[in-house]
């Protein structure tokens, strides 16, 4: 006696990275030292280069624990030491030496470097209001243009992806950079739509050629922070 054929079931699709693509975990550095008028930061190529604050070192340790088992093949940092300091715990766990990707350094704030951006934001400077209204960093006197910033970020992400096919990498970078990456990935009309990634947060991007796929943004579960 024949038995009825078993009906084929079609489960929902589960995402997997396309062959040859690169997974990037973009980590915002831990909290950096507060700006003080009496103790200006060191500068690297005209950009402020503060150390991590004690809270930032805790962020770095938590990031290291979170990513230690994620099959990461390479680490990247920028020219600014807060990124290498944040990468250090993970580098020690994985036995990897971070590589430098200078073009993923933070937006250059021109005349507002060395803590002045923090001060003027706190004081409600009118250019800060203009910056948010126009969604452009270059309303700040002497700041890097949006075109130059966006171009160097896209080129750097492209280089990292080309160098790491079928691999997972962790990139320790900056809030403005992460915001720009995800604005480009989503083709957001609001250029600042993804600005504000938390210190120590992890955002996840998959790059397959010219296709940038957003997997997660501003993951802070390892920081044990409540929704704010």
TrEMBL record:
Q: Which SMART domains match?
A: PGAM
A Pfam family cross-referenced in the UniProt record is His_Phos_1
What CDD domains has UniProt attached to this entry?
HP_PGM_like
Region labeled Disordered — which residues?
A: 1-61
For this protein, what is any one GO molecular function term?
kinase activity
Annotated GO CC locations: cytoplasm
Domain of life of the organism encoding this protein: Bacteria
Q: Does the keyword Transferase apply?
A: yes
This one is known as: Histidine phosphatase family protein
């Amino acid at each position: 006696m024949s038995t009825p054929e078993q009906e084929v079931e079609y489960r929902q699709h589960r995402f997997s990275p396309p062959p040859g693509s690169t997974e990037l975990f973009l980590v915002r550095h831990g909290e950096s030292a507060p700006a003080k008028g009496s103790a200006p930061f060191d500068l690297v190529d005209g950009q402020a280069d503060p150390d991590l604050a004690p809270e930032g070192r805790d962020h770095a340790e938590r990031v290291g624990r979170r990513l230690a088992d994620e099959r990461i093949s390479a680490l990247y940092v920028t020219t600014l030491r807060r990124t290498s300091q944040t990468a250090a715990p993970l580098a020690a766990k994985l036995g990897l030496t971070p590589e430098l990707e200078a073009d993923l350094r933070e937006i250059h704030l021109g005349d507002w470097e060395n803590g002045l951006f923090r001060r003027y934001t706190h004081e409600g400077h009118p250019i800060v209001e203009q910056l948010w209204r126009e969604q452009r960093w270059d309303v700040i006197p002497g700041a890097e243009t949006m075109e130059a910033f966006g171009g160097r970020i896209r080129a750097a992400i492209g280089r990292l992806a080309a160098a790491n096919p079928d691999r997972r990498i962790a990139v320790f970078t900056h809030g403005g950079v992460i915001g720009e990456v995800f604005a480009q990935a989503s083709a957001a009309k609001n250029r600042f739509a993804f600005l504000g990634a938390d210190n120590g947060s992890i955002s996840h991007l998959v790059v397959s050629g010219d296709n940038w796929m957003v997997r997660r943004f501003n993951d802070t579960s390892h920081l044990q922070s409540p929704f704010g």
